[in-house]
Design a protein that fits this description.
alpha/beta, Rossmann fold, 7-stranded mixed β-sheet, globular
């Protein structure tokens, strides 16, 4: 799905789902609720949640559209989709369907009212192609609501991690900077993203923002690496390399054992032309 893709890593957890989930209370859930609020979903609507993760936006979306509506949560991670499915069962949300699929290939049988994508567009190898693909199945007058990191984005976390990786992982230190970082930088510029959405066929774009502050300790900071595509920067076979990266990353990032991470997230809603 991105340049971070690498062979199985025997010294790391088979799935990053547990680490991803550890970030839910402080990060994914607040952002998911904000995304759903920006989409202004109505009872009875049909919604696709692309790059759904563990359901931080799919679950509140299913609650918003109600029993007469329908939400389809899509993600490539079977572990995350299974967690979304389990949560939906616990909450009694029978209107939420969970699908393991590539958002670049998934096409619903009928046009949908809204599409959600939380912090996912920069992870896709062809963001413009996915925007155009999504535009193709949003009904006239429907909308595509997505969130992106605002500048400086994830630089406070990425730069010390990349420095540690380049110091300790010989495979990565000799590799060029992944294209995903360039996509992340582009997505963090509202004017660039607006241009991409209009080029994909949407007629107008509205942008807002939310601010969040997260307190991370060493364990949660490492969860952020293992629970996201950043885990692909680690060694596929050498636990000692990963231990050194973890210690180096923590030493650069933490002050008195904690990192106070402040960030702004942009919320964009692109509207399909009316018929």
């Amino acid at each position: 799905m991105s340049e971070f893709t690498s062979p199985a890593q025997p010294d790391l957890p088979a799935s990053g789902a547990e680490h991803y989930e550890n970030l839910a209370p402080s990060l994914w859930n607040p952002l998911g609720s904000a995304l759903v609020s920006a989409a202004d979903l109505l009872p009875g609507e049909t919604v696709v949640d692309a790059c759904a993760g563990a359901g931080s936006s799919a679950l509140p979306a299913a609650q918003e559209v109600g029993a007469s509506g329908r939400v389809v949560a899509i993600d490539l991670s079977e572990g995350l989709i299974e967690r979304t499915r389990e949560k939906a069962l616990t909450l009694g949300l029978t209107n939420l369907e969970c699908v393991v699929d590539d958002v670049a290939a998934y096409t619903p049988e009928q046009p949908v009212d809204a599409v959600l994508m939380g912090l996912g567009i920069f992870l896709l190898p062809d963001p413009q192609g996915v925007m155009s693909h999504i535009r193709g199945y949003v009904r006239p007058g429907g909308r595509f609501t997505l969130s992106t990191w605002a500048q400086p984005g994830l630089e406070p976390l990425l730069e010390p991690l990349l420095a540690a990786v380049h110091r300790h992982n010989p495979v990565i230190s000799s590799s060029p900077r992944p294209d995903a970082f360039a996509r992340l930088e582009r997505a963090s510029k509202p004017e660039e993203l607006r241009s991409d959405l209009l080029e994909a066929g949407f007629s107008s774009v509205e942008t807002g923002e939310i601010h969040l502050r997260i307190s991370m300790d060493e364990a949660l900071l490492w969860d952020f690496v293992l629970g996201t595509s950043l885990r692909r920067l680690l060694s596929a076979s050498d636990p000692e390399i990963n231990r050194r990266i973890r210690a180096d990353f923590a030493e650069q990032s933490l002050t008195h054992g904690f990192l106070e991470f402040a960030a702004t997230v942009d919320l964009h809603t692109a509207y399909a032309p009316e018929a």
